[in-house]
Design a protein that fits this description.
With about 375 residues, the chain is mainly alpha-helical. The chain has a domain of about 240 residues. About 65% of the residues lie in helices and about 5% in strands. A hairpin with a 2-residue loop joins strand 2 and strand 3. The longest helix is centred in the last third of the chain and has 34 residues. The chain is globular and about 55 Å long.
Length: about 375
C-alpha cells in the first residue's frame, strides 16, 4: 500500500509541475479586482442591508469556486467522457425544471432556489455543454461538409432553446459562440461557420421585424427596445437608452487616471444601473480611468492567451476541444460586455467574467479554469 501511495504521489508531483502558474495568477488577480470594484459599486446601493453585503456574498462564492476548481484537478478530465450522456440529459432536465419551478428576476425565469441559496442553472449549463459537445465532436472526426454540422447544432439546440425561452437571449448567444468556436477548433470549414453566423444574424433581424410588425411575437418588448436603443440610444435618453448613455458618460468622465476608488460620481450617486453586474466595466472606467480599464483588458488578454496555449498543448482531441470551448466562452463574454458598456454592442445581459457580481457565474467560471488547468497538467505522458 505504501508503494502504491508513493507511486500516486510521485505522479501528482510531476503533474503539478506542469500546471500553468500564469493562468492561476491572472484568474486570482481578476477575482480580487472584481471584489474591489463590486464593493465600490454597491457600498452606496439603495436597499441593501449593509455596505459589505454584495462583496461578502461574492467573496463566499469565490472561495467555493476556488475549492471546486482545485477539486477538479484531482480527476483526469478524460474520465468525464463516460458521463457524457448523464451530464447532457441532466442539464436539459434542470433547464426544463427552471421553466416550471424557477422564479423570475429582471423579467426572466432564470433561477432555482435550494433553501437559502439561489442558483442560475444556465451558468453551469455552459460548462456541461462544453464537456458534452467536446465528447460528441471527438467522436465525429469529419466536419468538412456543411451537412456534417447538423449533428453538433442539434446537440446544442435543446438547452439553447430552453434558455432562450426563459427568456435569456444573452446566454443563448453565449451557447452559439461556444458552438462556433468548438466547431472551428474541431476542423469545420470557416466558410461554413460564416454561413451559420449570417443565418443567425438574419434570424434575429427577422424575429425583430416580425415582432415590430405584430405578425409573430418572437421577441419580448424589452428585447426589441434593446435592439432599437443599440441603433440610437438618444432616441429614448430617459428610458431604455438611459443605461448605455450613463455608462458611456461614466467611462468618458474617468479620463486617463480615473476619479479614484469611491470617487466616481456616476457610480456613487446611482446614475449607472446594474453597475455591479452588467455594467461593472463602467465603474472601472470611471474610477480607474483609461489606465485601469487597460490593465483589466490586459489581464483578460493574458487569460485568453493562456487558454489558447492550453488548447494547443492538450495531448488529445477531447482536451483540445474542451479548452477551445472555454476560450470561446470567455472571449465572447469579454467582447460583448465591454462593447455593451461602450455602446458598440447591444445590451444583452452578458456579464464580465470574474468581475461582475453573481455567484453562479463566478463559480462556473472558476470550474472552467480548473478544467483547463487539468488539461494542461496532464499534457505529458509520465515515464518511469
Amino acid at each position: 500500500m505504501r508503494i502504491l501511495e508513493r507511486f500516486r504521489a510521485d505522479i501528482e508531483r510531476r503533474q503539478l509541475r506542469d500546471l500553468d502558474p500564469v493562468l492561476f495568477l491572472v484568474t486570482l488577480a481578476l477575482v480580487i479586482c472584481g471584489l474591489v470594484v463590486i464593493y465600490s459599486a454597491t457600498r452606496s446601493l439603495p436597499g441593501v442591508p449593509h455596505p459589505h453585503y454584495y462583496v461578502q456574498r461574492q467573496a463566499q462564492w469565490a472561495v467555493l469556486g476556488l475549492l471546486a476548481g482545485i477539486a477538479v484537478l484531482g480527476y483526469d478530465y478524460r474520465a468525464l467522457q463516460k458521463w457524457t450522456y448523464v451530464l447532457y440529459i441532466g442539464t436539459v432536465a434542470v433547464l426544463a425544471a427552471v421553466m416550471v419551478l424557477g422564479f423570475s428576476a429582471a423579467g426572466a425565469e432564470r433561477w432555482l432556489a435550494l433553501g437559502p441559496v439561489r442558483l442560475q442553472p444556465s451558468e453551469f449549463a455552459k460548462v456541461s455543454i462544453i464537456l458534452t459537445l467536446a465528447a460528441y465532436l471527438d467522436r465525429k472526426q469529419d466536419l468538412s461538409r456543411l451537412s456534417s454540422l447538423i449533428g453538433p447544432l442539434l446537440h446544442v439546440a435543446p438547452p439553447m432553446v430552453l434558455i432562450a425561452l426563459q427568456p435569456d437571449i444573452g446566454t443563448a448567444l453565449v451557447f452559439a459562440a461556444i458552438t462556433l468556436g468548438m466547431l472551428y477548433f474541431a476542423g469545420a470549414q470557416p466558410k461554413h461557420l460564416f454561413l451559420l453566423i449570417l443565418a443567425g444574424v438574419g434570424a434575429i433581424v427577422l424575429a425583430g421585424y416580425l415582432t415590430l410588425q405584430g405578425y409573430v411575437p418572437l421577441l419580448k418588448d424589452y428585447q426589441v427596445r434593446r435592439l432599437a436603443v443599440f441603433l440610437d440610444p438618444y432616441a429614448d435618453p430617459t428610458g431604455d437608452g438611459w443605461n448605455v448613455i450613463q455608462s458611456m458618460i461614466a467611462i468618458g468622465s474617468g479620463g486617463f487616471f480615473g476619479k479614484g476608488l469611491f470617487g466616481g460620481s456616476q457610480t456613487q450617486l446611482n446614475f449607472v444601473p446594474a453597475r455591479h453586474t452588467d455594467f461593472i466595466f463602467s465603474v472601472i472606467g470611471e474610477e480607474f480611468g483609461f489606465l485601469g480599464a487597460t490593465f483589466i483588458l490586459f489581464l483578460f488578454a493574458l487569460l485568453i492567451w493562456r487558454l489558447l496555449r492550453v488548447t494547443v498543448l492538450a495531448k488529445d482531441r477531447y482536451g483540445m476541444l474542451i479548452a477551445g470551448g472555454i476560450t470561446s466562452m470567455f472571449f465572447f463574454h469579454i467582447l460583448v460586455n465591454v462593447g455593451m458598456t461602450l455602446g458598440v454592442m447591444p445590451i444583452t445581459g452578458i456579464t464580465l467574467p470574474f468581475l461582475s457580481q453573481g455567484g453562479s457565474s463566478l463559480m462556473a467560471n472558476l470550474i472552467c479554469i480548473g478544467i483547463a488547468s487539468n488539461i494542461v497538467m496532464r499534457r505529458r505522458k509520465i515515464h518511469f
